[in-house]
Amino acid sequence: MLQIGPKSWTRSLVCVGGYVLKSRIGLLALALVVSVSAPAAITFNLSYLAGTSAQQQTAFQQAAARWSNIFNDNITINLTVGTASLGSGILGSTGSPSVGVSYSSFRSALIADATSANDTTATSNLQAGPSLTVRTNRWSNNPNGNNSVTPYTATLTNMAITRANAKAIGILGATDTASDGSITFTTNTSTLPSGGYSYTPGSVASNQIDFVGIATHEIGHALGFVSGVDAVDGGGNGADNASAWVRPMDLYRFSSTSGTNPDLTAGTPAKYFSLDKGVTGQSVTFSTGVADGDGNQASHWKDSLGLGIMDPTASNGETLAISANDIKMFDVIGYNLAPVPEPATMVAFGLGALAVMRRRKNRS
Ligand SMILES: [Zn+2]
User: Fold this and answer.
1) Per-residue pLDDT of the chain (364 residues; tens, 9 = 90+)
2) How many domains does the chain have?
């Protein structure tokens, strides 16, 4: 969910690109026959509900292309896109079906999928399993009392991951055709500013909301930027092991009091993004919960710090862009970074020029 809210900071647009048209799949396949080393890309299979304008569809494809240009997992993600009058203050929302998986299976798949230096750091610091020990609160079997806010240590065995994330690490078939998410943009005029949406990235007037930015954000949730702490938040829960609720990004959620176990409590203290069991990463923080925490869903970065596209709010006139923090998170939950040509390669001729052409074709 992305909410409208006060912001005093601005960000510059860093990601503009073309998009992966479904009609180009054949062209990609042909390219792969010619050159088996050509990199793949995430393909988005988009279905639009009635009422989604052509302008909105084009803008949504631009948002999808931002992710395809960064990650090259050879998977197809099926999203349904529509509009509705959402609750006051809510700009967009995403429903993303998830699959349950044991922590052991997830860990093994993530290790097998590791490609980057951050993947190596992240996976080498994961608990060995088969069980996963976390700090949490609220659940009915909290030894401090039914749904108490007082933290305790829980031992779990299962996780939940979005279907898109499951495809990225090979737990689901790469081209499985069931829905991987449903994204809705508000038409509520009491939420939108007088200028409505801007559909032009980098050109968002002071009385407009950045539609492509919001779309990018909502796709991020479907890809897997989701925290189980939103299930913890507010209480009213059953036993901690009665359902799969820990999410991949929760494995990197730590606090000053969590020790070496992930901190999956709602509320204080601050939670931060760490690949090394909480030793580093204190400057990149998460939202801490609507009910028990700072007022924002835990499935986001901390609000208004400029941490990335998964910030929970957007302001009038604000351009929203994918950040290094966003990319790092999606990398370590199972997406693979597309190689970026070295400057030396780009200026070389012969083989270098060929490499650049292949990349452009696959990034288009
Ligand atoms: Zn959101």
Assistant:
1) 666 544 333 222 222 222 222 223 223 333 333 333 345 789 999 999 999 999 999 999 999 999 999 999 999 999 999 999 999 999 999 999 999 999 999 999 999 999 999 999 999 999 999 999 999 999 999 999 999 999 999 999 999 999 999 999 999 999 999 999 999 999 999 999 999 999 998 899 999 999 999 999 999 999 999 999 999 999 999 999 999 999 999 999 999 999 999 999 999 999 999 999 999 999 999 999 999 999 999 999 999 999 999 999 999 999 999 999 999 999 999 999 998 765 554 433 333 333 322 222 222 2
2) 1
pTM as predicted:
0.84
297 CA to centre of ligand 1 in angstroms? 8
Q: Looking at the DSSP assignment, which residues form a beta bridge with residue 83?
A: 185
Q: 313 alpha carbon to ligand 1 midpoint, in Å?
A: 8
End-to-end CA distance of the chain: 28
314 Cα to the center of ligand 1, angstroms: 10
Write out the two tokens for 62. 């631009």
> What is the 93 CA–ligand 1 centroid distance (Å)?
7
Domain limits at 175?
2-363
Q: What's the CA-to-centroid distance between 310 and ligand 1, angstroms?
A: 6
Contact 158, 74 (CB under 8 A): no
CA of 83 to the centre of ligand 1 (A): 16
* Burial class, 71, CB count within 10 angstroms (exposed 0-12 / middle 13-18 / buried 19+): buried
Q: Phi first, then psi: give them for residue 116, nearest 5 degrees.
A: -110, 170
Cis omega before residue 339 (within 30°)?
no
CA of 244 to the centre of ligand 1 (A): 21
Output the CA 214–ligand 1 centroid distance in Å: 9
